[in-house]
Amino acid sequence: MDVKVITLDNEDAGTIALADEVFGLPARVDILHRMVRYQLAKRRAGTHKVKTISEIAGSTAKIYRQKGTGRARHGAKRANIFRGGATVHGPVVRSHAHDLPKKVRRLALKTALSVKAQGGKLVVVDELKADDAKTKALVARLEKAGLGSSTLFIGGTEVDQGFRLAARNLIGIDVLPSQGANVYDILRRDTLVLSRAAVESLEARLK
User: Fold this and answer.
1) How far is CA 136 from CA 16, 47, 143, 178, in A?
2) Which residues of 18-54 are buried (b: 16+ CB within 10 A; e: fewer)?
3) Which domain of life, per UniProt (predicted)?
């Protein structure tokens, strides 16, 4: 498919042909769901922790004799039913990450790009560059280009330093290099903006 290319000043910069095998796939909600779960599970710290009975400070002596008191047959004050005792089946430090085949991950990224393209939420710009690295100047350019506050910018293999610095204080604006393109960030922003270099890099990576 052919897509119009603009500059950040909303000037015409020609057209670019997007590969159908990357930007023209049908929407697969199941694949996107699996990928988002995979990403969010992998980023979880998993540092939640409770103390088991072996970690509770206290004597191991039997608290009273086994028989004759009419009370329950307890052996230690550290049991979970006592105040200050252990927690049973509580969370422990662990990794929440799970496996997802590489082919599924590649398909999910291509599907996310296709969903944006088919929904009219994909914008291709000539280049992502800001000479003065000023946030105010960048905001004016984005407003002129009709780009809102929920936008993901993906540049080439290296993002222009001036553009990155100018955009880092803007709420709802994310800037990534092409190798950092991922399904979760693409879906969480309303508009996806790719540079020419990003399109070439993603097509070379995903074809």
Assistant:
1) 30, 40, 11, 25
2) bbeebbebeebeebbebbbebbeeeeeeeeeeeeeee
3) Bacteria
- What is the rounded CA–CA span in Å between residue 64 and residue 155? 71
List the chain domain ranges: 2-28+99-206
Q: How crowded is residue 164: how many other Cβ atoms within 10 Å of its Cβ?
A: 18
Query: Would you state the structure tokens that stand for residue 86, as one six-digit string?
Result: 């252990």
Closest CA to 185 of 36, 45, 34, 44: 36
Q: Is the dihedral of CA 7, 12, 13, 15 positive or negative?
A: positive
Domain 2-28+99-206, CATH among 3.40.1370.10, 1.10.443.10, 3.50.50.60, 3.40.50.920: 3.40.1370.10
Please give the average pLDDT of every successive group of 10 residues along the chain, which has 207 residues. 92 94 96 98 96 90 94 92 93 96 97 96 94 92 90 92 94 95 96 96 93
β-strand 12-17 against 2-6: which pairing, if any? antiparallel
pTM of the predicted model, to two decimals? 0.86
